[in-house]
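S.,

As promised, the 4'-deoxy-4'-aminopyridoxal-5'-phosphate run. Input:
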Amino acid sequence: MSKLNLRPDLPLSAVASIAEEAAAAGWTDVLPMAGGEPRFAPPPAALSALSSASVEAVTKYTPFRGTVPLLAGIQRKLSEVNDLSVDLSEIIALPGGAQALFSALSVLIGPDRREVVLIDPCWEHYPRIAQAAGAEVRIVPTVREGAHDRIDLDALRGAVTSRTAAVLLNTPLNPTGSVLTAAELREIGDVCGAARARLVVDEEYETFVYGPHQHVSARSVVPEAISLFSFSKSFALTGIRLGYICADPETVDAIKRFGLYTYMYSASPSMVMAAEMLRDDVRPYLKNARGEYEAKAADLSANLDALPGVSCVMPEGGVYVFPRIAQEEGSSVAMRLVRERHLLCVPGEAAGATGRGHVRLFIGLDDAQNREAVLRVREFVEADAE
Ligand code: PMP
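Predicted complex:
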């Protein structure tokens, strides 16, 4: 036991511990489907921007909310892609979607409003981020209908009170891919509005919506909502650590002040990269990324669903499939897939009780690896049935 007084409430996430376990074991045949690192190439303009930028532009402090070319590029993207016409004062860039979550919650939580309402299932980081920001977490269960996680409005109304700082949602939802409709966002917005709680919507996976499903940006239908975005997944730029928030100017200003005392600024080379690629119309690039992932999601879900004892619906969106795999009571099927088959995946229950019996698999590996993953699940379920 360490003598240091460190926070015991911040353990490693399931994804991080699985990655560490696999690295320590030194397996050479892993299929890395636990995390969600995009494998397609970033826009070429993002990379060429660095070599043509001035030394000044990539080494010096920048304005707090982001450089003018970056904010202008984001403004244009929000209008073209998200149907959101906003003033520059409604945008702030910050170091990644995870920081966007922490900053937004941090400015909303106060002595009178300490609670953050989450749904089950949700990204396993949400309760921890909320706690790190000083919140108490309340969880509202959802009802799974096909590939959709329906939020029970009565249950939500019961949870959202004068103590609620924020309701934090995610569309498309990590891990299940469930996509919120405009009507759902409006209804949830009304529940929040009635209690003067803020609706915060994480739109990290906005690009990845399939079939008839459309991504609806929360702020395009709920004017008081706070929409969070990132360059990580849509542009395959996880390592540049750049995200942005769209909110009313007063909230943006509060987030700017919070940033001043935490990270101060986003990294200037990242801003140069993003600003340069946003000069182009990014819609064809995003359409390609969506098409590639839609085909992968369709193949993986159909091939998994065809296995005995496995059911897997085509997700509405997102970068994961979320099959349910029949298993003996009490054992974690995901951990057995990791240890016995070296198929790195995340236990569904990391997302909450509704995820029990499911595993989360990233869809973005190449097609041969995805076929190999299905084969390993097949061997696993067949060996178990013997
Ligand atoms: N939101 C969700 C739902 C995520 O899954 C992730 C990363 N996997 C993030 C936010 C944060 O990612 P980043 O900080 O790279 O934008």
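Residues 36, 96-98, 123, 170, 174, 202, 204, 230, 232, 238, 243 surround 4'-deoxy-4'-aminopyridoxal-5'-phosphate (CB under 6 Å). The first helix runs from residue 14 to 25.

- D.
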